[in-house]
Structures are given as structure tokens and as C-alpha cells.
Predict the structure.
Amino acid sequence: MSTTAPAPAPAPAPSPDTKADERLLETSRLRKLMNRPELGSVVGAIAVFVFFALFADSFVRAASLSTVLYASSTIGIMAVPVALLMIGGEFDLSAGVMVTSSALISSMFSYQMTANVWVGVFVSLLVTLAIGVFNGVMLTRTDPPSFIITLGTFLMLTGMNLGFTKLISGTVSTKSISDMEGFSSAKDVFASTITIGGVDFKITILWWLALVVVATWILLRTRVGNWIYAVGGGEEAARAVGVPVDKTKIGLYMGVSFGAWISGQHLLFSFDVVQSGEGVGNELIYIIAAVIGGCLITGGYGSAVGAAVGALIFGMVSKGIVFAEWNPDWFKFFLGVMLLLATLLNHWVRKRAEATK
């Protein structure tokens, strides 16, 4: 005797709880957005753009925006690796003069050895990365904090930049290498201009965007990114779970050195000669851009995108004051105000993020 299989039960009608779940999902997405470290910098960037668009008519012109992006990129190329280092809980006060060191090494090696300019460029890369390794090893093998170690490196590089330049060139600036083999091709890579729609854009903008993409991928999609956040959040806890703390910190310092190398080559091939005293004080600008972008000085929190937006804010303010025809003496005042506001907003965002965990 056969039995008839029971008819499948009808699908239940959507209940009010389903809509409630959808609302919770939307709230969760909004909360996740509110907890992003770059939120404050993005809001600040929009406010700064609107402000100067209202008070400086020439600010919104394509050529003016190109100038703003160029100014932002020269800061952003360094602000991005500096931000990763800060997320890892460390500082590098030698970053500014390291840019000048990189340019000086390329120029003087090429000139003195009468070699192809590209030889000097690659020698500069090796030496600059070695400086980063030195900072990282000194930090991981000794007790002093990164502030003291990199301050020592800053002073040594400042003296070496001036001393070696005067010893080799007889002046405080390098000799011209514009007539040497390889100069034009190196300039195409590090200091060329790309015309799009009749507007000129410096290639440093592409370098900047590429670094942001790579750094963001490292932070959000790789194991190394987890290590960086873990080291910045608590070194001992990171060691306890098997994070290679020393290698991570050395790698972060090498990242800053790589950014300094790119910036140094741009400096050299933009102006042909390099002044040995340049770069002093720029390390604070890179740190400010990272802090405005959402990085905490205590480490463990921040993003590469936020640092890039912080650099963009810096570029908009520095050039917006010029386009508005205001007294440039007020620039640092505006910079200080932005730093304080960004710090307070970042603190508020971090507290909200911790409260929702």
C-alpha cells in the first residue's frame, strides 16, 4: 500500500521581524561607517573645500585643483608610510631630512662617479632603505623609545647632509646633473607632468595614489596588516600571540624610507640641484597629516586613506590661502586649529568605536 507524501508546507509570510532585521543591518552599516578612522578627516576635507570655494573664486578652477593635488601629493607620499608606522605605535623624526639625504646621495654619487643617473638612483634606494633598517634595529635591540632614536638619526643626517655636501661640492648645494645620461628618463619617472583635458598634473599624484592603494591593501587584506594593528595596540600582547614584532617594526621603518626615496628623487629631478639644508621640520608635517587623517599617537588605530585625506586638507589650506589672497602668515594658525579639531573628533570616534564593541 502506497502512502501519499505530505504536501510541502507553504513558505512563511515575511514577518515584521524580517524588516526589523533589515533595519538592524542598515544600522550596523551606518555604525561601521561612523567608526571608520578617516571619517573625521573626510568631513573636514569637505568643509575645507566648501570654505575656500566660497571665499576664493579661483580655487575651484581645474588648474588650481591640480596645484592643490600636487601640494597634497608631496606631503601624502610621506604621510602614508608615516601613518602605517604610527598605527604600529612608533614615530620617525628623521623622515624629513631623509628625503633630502636620498636626493643628495643620488646627485653626488652620479656626479662624482660620472655614472648613469640611474646608478645613483638605485644606490640612493639601497642607502635610504639601510637608514630605515638602522632605525628599526636600533629600536628593537635597545631600550630608548623611537622618539629618541629617530631624533638622533635626524641630527646625524642633518649634519651629514651639510658636511658631505660642502666637502664634495664646496658649497651647500649639489652640482647640476641635468646633462648626464639617464637624467631625462629618470625625470619622466619621478618629476614629469601629465596633461589631461588641457590640465597639467604632476606624476607625484600617481605615486601618491599608488602608495595609498598598496598601503590600504596591506592593512585590510594581508596578515601583515593585522600584525601592524596588533603591534600598535599592545606589543607584549602581540608577542604572546606569535606576531613577529621586531620584523614588523623594521619593515615599517623601511616603508618610511621607501617613501623618502620617492620624495627625494622627485626633489632632485624637479630642480636638478638640491640644497643640503632642506627637509628640516617636514617630519612634523607628515605626522600632522597622519593625525588629521585619524591616526592616534598612541598607535593601533588609523588608516592609509585617512592619512591621504589629511595630506589633501594640508594641500587645500596651504594653496587655498594663496588663492584667497590672504596673508600666508596665518597658515600655521589654520593648521593648528585643524590639528586640534581633528584630534578631538578622532578621540570621539575612537570612544564610540570602543563603546560599540
